[in-house]
Amino acid sequence: MTNGAFRFGDIRLYVLDMDGTLYLSDRLLPGAMDLIEYFREQAVPFLMYTNNSSRSAEDYAAKLNRLKIEVQPDLIMTSADVMVDCLKTRHPGEPVALLGTPACAETFRSAGVELSDDARIAVAAFDTTLTYAKLVRFCDVLRAGAVFYATHPDLNCPVDGGMIPDLGAFLALIEASTGRRPEIVGKPFRPTVAAISRRTGFAPSQMAFVGDRLYTDMAVARNNGAHAVLLMSGETDDAMLAASSIQPDAVFADAAALLEAIRGERP
Fold first, then answer.
1. What domains does the chain contain, in order, with CATH numbers?
2. With contact defined as beta carbons under 8 Å apart, do 78 and 154 qualify?
3. Phi then psi for 252, rounded to 5 degrees?
4. Is the confidence at residue 267, as pLDDT, over 60?
């Protein structure tokens, strides 16, 4: 389903979410592999972007390759990459206190960001290795007045068979304890679109964000002048879509249905 003004021909770059869009846990979703193959065959530019900052671009590339979608890490961005981009612009050379996985920490270090528990900059990421001791240390840094950022606001992460708590749920806990709210750089906020534009050279009006979440994937498009394509293969259901003030340009059941529509419009 598309609105009357939407045309695939207006899109120069497809920005594809991964969790709930291309796969759930270790299961490819319908049409995911065919969609990527079609983009390659037709020389359609695309980039895979996920708010999930628990893994690195290299980790995601390895996972997709295991799932038989062959991609290189340079075609993948995460909200951690956007966060690094912001830190280098706003706080060059300053150490950072990170709440995150070892993979996320390596993303920061490999980009030249020093990590320290005593830093004046604090970044919360999706930490699937979270312990109470790590949480206490991070809250202490915030109470000491550190500038507070978070990679993304997602409340839940879709997995095969359900949902698990994501960073947005952690942030609610941190706010309840410290009274602090972060600046968030991932979808749906502008730093994500700015970082993608710098990497690819495409303007927001030339991009289509394809994903399964209204308040991140669709909102980032709506907030920044891009096209919004919703797939109903992850978090969003019919009731959520009907009740939302965020309405996409197009809605499809999954990647297979999206590919069918793209093929139907292209000559």
1. 8-51+190-265 (3.40.50.1000), 80-184 (3.40.50.1000)
2. no
3. -135, 155
4. no
